[in-house]
Fold:
Amino acid sequence: MNASNILILFSNSPYHEQHYYASAISSCLEQLSYNVTLINTDLDISESALQAAILQLAPDLIFTLGLSGFHLQMLGDDLFLNGAYCPCVHLLTRHPAYDAEYLSQRMNFTMFFYSYFTEYATYIERFFKRVPSVAVLPFYQLPVTDIKSFEDRTIDLYYPSSYIPSEDILSHIKALPEVFANICLNVIQSMQDNTDTYLHKCLADYLDKIHFSLSDNEFNEIMQTMQLVELYVKSLSSEHYIALLLENGYDVTVSGENWNQFLLKSHTNLHIIGEHGLNCYEAVDTMCNSKAILNLQFHKNSGIHPRIISALSSHANCVTNENRQISEIIGFDNIFTFKTDEDFLHQTDLAIHHPFTDMSTPSLSDVLSDIINNI
Structure:
């Protein structure tokens, strides 16, 4: 499509992720000679003022990151846009089931959705048939500056993730109504037995097993309670693999809330920076000073997690659980995958001693240009 004026709408997020990616997209689009305006929809701005600002800007294209269902519905309203052809590109940042209320509503044909994970796109195609277009984002490199040489980096292994003790999450799950608590506990067991199976497939398989039939809307309602299951499985993974590293003498640097509650906090080789969490800009700076980044993304094995993108863009190696798409997308030169505990320790050792290899992968500018040209 021909576009000259592009609007980027983003919302606040705990560690400024949306602001970081909105700024990166804006920088790349400006380098491509587009006129770009950014608006934070969470600032003190009324519905009518936001609508007036958008209409006054008269954008040719809108990018959105992490917006509420209300904002997305407003953008999808033909009456609001006066029937004008103004495509909206939505970058999905979480499981689509958590935005079911919006995704179930009528949309105009100018809405384009992109996800980091194939299973999210497949889920939308299966459960939200009113969504006109959904695709998976290809791998890209962020425009990261101030990159240190591998030899000058002072952090061996960095895990940029907050921590919630698994026992705390489990207590919240058990406090749910009994039927939901039982479903969650059984899905957790299934996910622990099948680490390469998607969350919603574990849920669907369990419901089939107990002969519990649901409509699509009812399934999505139950999926929304699965956020606790996702948190619990993530916490168990963090506890297991961080403990394994510490017990085997590796120095591990973490950032994010609650790591001082970690059960093995007495270990002197666990280094906590930013006890209340680093924002996304600070986390990327830390990646630029790290030899390897740890990424635990079980049950998201058909796409590239943003943490992998940030790590490789910072010229840090990445240790991650086996992902069947990694070899197809970016190969294994700077990615160290594992399946077993023994393999995890071996791959970690390789990652922190293996100098980063330059990659010939698309830039974010290349990906944005392709998105725009294909609309």
Notes: The chain has two domains: 5-141+364-373, 144-358. Residues 10 and 65 are 5 Å apart (CA to CA). The domain at 144-358 is CATH 3.40.50 (Rossmann fold). The chain has a mean pLDDT of 85.
